[in-house]
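thread from #wetlab-drylab

HS: before we spend reagent money on co-crystallization trials with 3-methyl-2-oxobutanoic acid, can we at least see a predicted complex? here's what I'd submit
DV: go for it
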Amino acid sequence: MEKRKIIIFDTTLRDGEQSPGASLKDNEKLVIAHQLARLGVDVIEAGFPIASDGDFEAVKLVAQNVKGPIICGLARTNEADVDRCWEAVKHAARPRIHTFIATSKVHLEEKLKMTPAEVIKRTVNAVKRAKSYCADVEFSPEDATRTGQDYMCDVVRAAIEAGATTINIPDTVGYAEPQEFGDRIRYLFKKVPEARKVVVSVHCHNDLGNAVANSLAAIEAGATQIEGCINGIGERAGNAALEEIIMNLITRKDYYNVTLNIKTREIFKTSRLVSNLTGIEVQRNKAVVGMNAFAHEAGIHQHGILQNKRTYEIMKPEEVGWTGDNLVIGKHSGKHAVTALLEEEGFQLDQNLISQITARIKELADKEKSVEREDVIAIARDITHQLSEEEQFVKLEEFTVTTGSAMTPTASVKLRVYGDLKIAAGIGDGPIDAVSNAIWQMVDPSLKLVDYHLKAITGGTDALADVSIKLIDANQNTFMARAVDEDVIRASAKAIIKGINKALNYRERFQTQE
Ligand code: KIV
Ligand code: ZN
């Protein structure tokens, strides 16, 4: 029997970017999109063009520059969304408009305040409008798994009649169980035979940890497009992890008997690139791409592996592009070693950035015995996320902190704010709190620090401190920032100031246009 081709639809840049804590600049989205093209995904959903000017520009940039995959944008089923989406994706050689509307009772009654018939009408109008621009139109009944099956089929039938070429069934809230989800796809093929003439896709969220299993169950039921994100990032608990689905289909080709365009050796690099640019870590024990995915700890396993790797290894590490951890970086390491390590981690950096990173590594190596892979990554992240000189409206000039077991921590901080030198003092529950309180006396009080996270990169009291923070402005826009330094207080101050600068830049860019 001829093998079915499974279309891999990547939504890392759209649903993935909706992950709490993730936010990507336009050029970072472009770098990821190029890597997704190298990985061989068939479709890249690059964003939601109507959501913001930034989203629109990013989708347009990807459409203009990334060759190979279909470039898709998301739109609700209203005219303005569809039109805006087309304006962004039309630059692609192979554009797609993906339009969606919720179909479950709770969404119709509580969110849309629409009747089932109105939703069908909106679906038909949106698909027809999208079709007037673009031959390739995808339609999704949002919250499909909490929608009555017959009504879901009616909406899908109407979308196909209106011209949709892909029908995507989303498990929006990650509610489905694998067998049940597979049965829903089978039911769809039975009740809507026209679905066999279009691509049937699925899009699973991971709220109950079933996203990958549900996607695989849908493939068994006849779906031929799978949507997901690299590293399983995405809204709430995330989307189906594409690398896991891909390696299931490849490792168990005896079972699934399908073909893919994917170049699996690009998986590891893609995973690390996404993690490094979004700042969302890959958990060590994550399937396929976790640091421990190919590590064998127990003696009995090590013995088996030494005799024959097949005893405990179902995939070869090199098959997913994992090259091992054998590069040692120290003060004598040159740019080549640093470039090699960072390329393995998915960074694509110019010589100027490599020189800055190498210089910071040498500085650290002079102080510490060894510089580990994680240190190098943290330094690279820090340097690549540096704001340009013009973007730094607020600069840290200096700070002093006094603290002790019998005194209230007190800080004095000197900042340059729009060129003016300002000094303030603050007290706090600890030295970082004191510095933070001093900073907030000199900057816009409508910005609020809502999240602070401190991580020691590698062991020891001399470890690099990696601080990530989140700020919100009065309009609930969020700004993430991160800074790395050997000094935990300086790392914290730098991260807070970087977040403030991001918020001020956003204001300059968008609010001055209003
Ligand atoms: O989860 C969801 O339902 C979505 C749709 C827009 C496809 O992301
Ligand atoms: Zn989703």
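DV: The first strand starts at residue 4 and ends at 5.
HS: ok that's useful, forwarding to the group
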